[in-house]
Write a structure and sequence with these properties.
Strand content: 25-35%
Number of helices: 3
Helix content: 10-25%
Radius of gyration: 14 Å
Amino acid sequence: MVSRGEGGRQRSRSDSSYCKQVPVLRSSSPVLYNPKSVLKRPVSPEELQRPGSPYTRRTFTIVGDAVGWGFVVRGNVPCHIQAVDPSGPAAAAGMKVCQFVVAVNGVNVLSSDYKTVSNLILTGPRTVVMEIMEEADC
């Protein structure tokens, strides 16, 4: 999970067919967790940027809280949103599972893996501006 401090927990969507429940130490409600990729198939950076592709670009401004930003980034080039805490800042901004990360604070990350993207977020300001690509029918 992209988080600051020890309170970060990996969270995912509430669809029980995707996930299993894992107890959370500091919360009264269960958190859903999915260790496998949520993507149905691999997608290349070229496919995301191809004219006429079924992907649209969106921008989110997410202000981190004491725990973090409330999302998990995974995958190789391009990386994607693996999980979103339904009660976290990312969900409040509109971020969803399966979106592809295009840029973080104006830095293009389409050719970066999730470790590089996570590090860019963690070492940046508390407010992060994320550009993503998602399927147009989302």
